[in-house]
Write a structure and sequence with these properties.
Length: 275
């Protein structure tokens, strides 16, 4: 087994040219090291944790470009993220422990594609695009939904690298947003449900428009909550709206996971009343 660290993308390109076999990229290593305890490592391990160019956060033409190597800790602290995508900073703040946040990366969270991953609902809610460099060197910019395909499944082939996420600025600017994570513990917990929400709030009309709500940990991939959005759309924000929101959310969760153990029984003698 060979392990090496690449300083930049040019160095990576020459490594890829010379190697034909399987590669394990390692960024923070917080998922990979655990994963490889039960399965063999590739012959070539490429450490991308200090690869220049993967660690940048910069405003580009109409979007915020967030490098795949940006750590979770940086998502919390970075002023550009705080101004344009505070929901991402909030999700990062509820992510793992301080040690994990210092190592774990945005790219690793996407490539791992775990249903309970905290950043994925936020990325889908922001309708991000994902910039990928194929092993051949070809670059592509794909919709989030074309990248994260299922539990642990992505469009990435072996040796393909996530370079960055493109977060559209026009759709983020001036909007209100929220991120909520429910888990069995208050901290360092795996989400049973995480919710990302983005909306236009008209102060004068006291109404929500252009609402996007995405739930994680309910399905193999983050789920857009159409019925919950409909329950909120273009209605005055008041207590009745809050109650309708909670009702619609409860129904959406129940129908997404009808057999969950904590669901109240509705029909005597029939354990799973909903289809
Ligand atoms: C104690 C603990 C707590 C955790 N808490 C949370 C939590 O609260 N929320 C949460 O969402 N997750 C959590 N995780 C999971 C993990 O930290 C995240 O999924 C993290 O984002 C993975 O990033 P990484 O850089 O460590 O990835 P790595 O472990 O380095 O890599 C994971 C996989 O992604 C691939 N990869 C990494 N970067 C790239 C890239 N740029 N391009 C292509 N492939 C790439 C690797 O080859 C590997 O297959 C936790 C893990 C632990 C151990």
């Amino acid at each position: 087994m060979t392990a090496l660290r690449v300083a930049d993308l040019t160095a990576l390109a020459s490594v890829l040219q010379q190697s034909g076999g399987r590669i394990d990229y390692i960024a923070g290593g917080t998922d990979l090291i655990i994963e490889r305890q039960g399965s063999p490592w590739a012959n070539l391990i490429v450490d991308i944790s200090q690869t220049v160019g993967l660690d940048r956060i910069e405003a580009d033409a109409g979007f915020l470009r967030i490098g795949a190597g940006v750590t979770i800790a940086r998502l919390i602290e970075d002023p550009l993220i705080g101004q344009t995508a505070p929901m991402l900073a909030r999700a990062a703040a509820q992510f793992g422990s301080a040690q994990i946040r210092n190592r774990a990366t945005l790219g690793g969270n996407i490539a791992g594609a775990m249903p309970a991953a905290d950043l994925l609902p936020v990325l889908k809610c922001h309708a991000v695009k994902v910039e990928i460099q194929r092993r051949s060197g070809v670059r592509e910019v794909l919709d989030f939904d074309a990248v994260v395909l299922g539990r642990g499944q992505t469009c990435l082939g072996n040796g393909d690298l996530i370079l960055a996420v493109h977060l559209p600025l026009a759709e983020a600017t001036g909007r209100i947003s929220a991120f909520v994570k429910l888990g069995p513990r208050q901290a360092v917990t795996i989400a049973c449900l995480n919710l990302a929400a983005l909306a236009d709030y008209g102060m004068a009309s006291n109404r929500l428009r252009d609402i996007r709500i995405v739930a994680g940990a309910l399905a193999p991939v983050p789920l857009r909550m159409d019925a919950v959005e409909a329950a909120l759309r273009d209605r005055p924000v008041n207590q009745a709206l809050v109650e309708d929101f909670l009702h619609a959310l409860g129904q959406a969760v129940d129908s997404a996971i009808p057999g969950r153990a904590s669901q109240p029984l509705q029909t005597a003698g029939h354990p799973w009343p909903r289809p």
